[in-house]
Amino acid sequence: MDPLILFTLLGAAVVLLLTVGAPMRPIRLLGNLSVKLVVGILLLFLVNASGSWTGLHIPINPVTASVTGILGVPGLVLLVAVKQFLL
């Protein structure tokens, strides 16, 4: 096989993979963020459900859900600390 044809096919394959894979990255990022947001809402719901025993209530809004979703359990602990000591 001629090296020029081989390099042309390899170059075309790389360009094809880059053009097909490039639009998937933002979609994957949005998917990951939405899953983390749902997990944050569930964690806040569990804290609020146990609030009758502990007397703790953290409102579920986009800011608290985002903090809990992105940071996870440390974000939830941060929100609880802010609620207890600052508010």
TrEMBL record:
Source organism, top-level taxon: Bacteria
Q: Which residue spans traverse the membrane?
A: 37-56, 63-82
Show the Pfam families listed in the entry.
Answer: BofA
Keywords (alphabetical) are:
Membrane, Transmembrane, Transmembrane helix
Which InterPro entries does the record associate with it?
BofA
**Designated name of the protein:** Pro-sigmaK processing inhibitor BofA
| Species of origin | Alkalicoccobacillus porphyridii
